[in-house]
Amino acid sequence: MDKSFPTDQNDRDALFQRLEAIEAVIARHEALFAKEGHSINDSPETTDGAIHFSGQFENASGSISYSWSRPTHHLLEEAWDSSFTRLSALAHPQRGLILKQLLNDPCSVSTLCQLGVTSSTGTAYHHLNELESAGWVRKGRGGVYEVPTERIIPLLTIISASENH
């Protein structure tokens, strides 16, 4: 199937008509669910339990919205090894300081040292390598490290879930 945008006006009009029809069906379904006291998210997969998290984040680089959902049976049936590997990379106070800095303002190793976030470039690289191998940071252009967009809300969710409730 060709996924390029149609260049012919008639094809574009037909595409927009199909899109409008789909949106109308979705609106009718949402209205029906609301009237019956159900959520559009009610499905056999989620009515037996689900874990959801979402959030919005804004920094100097821009803003994002993110949401994630998993049925509880999926979480209970899958192995947790890779999740614990990712979590263990966070379990160091120095890495927390680095992540907090990168969330506020992505920067280089030398900037981390200049700001006093790390005491040396060796220390910075050690912790950044651990965070990078677990997927919490990535090195961008010019040696600037950042928290990948898809990891920002999960990271902040872990931090907020770790608060004293």
Automatic annotation (TrEMBL):
Signal peptide bounds: none
Any GO molecular function: DNA-binding transcription factor activity
Domain HTH arsR-type: 85-157
Name of this protein: HTH arsR-type domain-containing protein
Protein species of origin: Corynebacterium glutamicum (strain R)
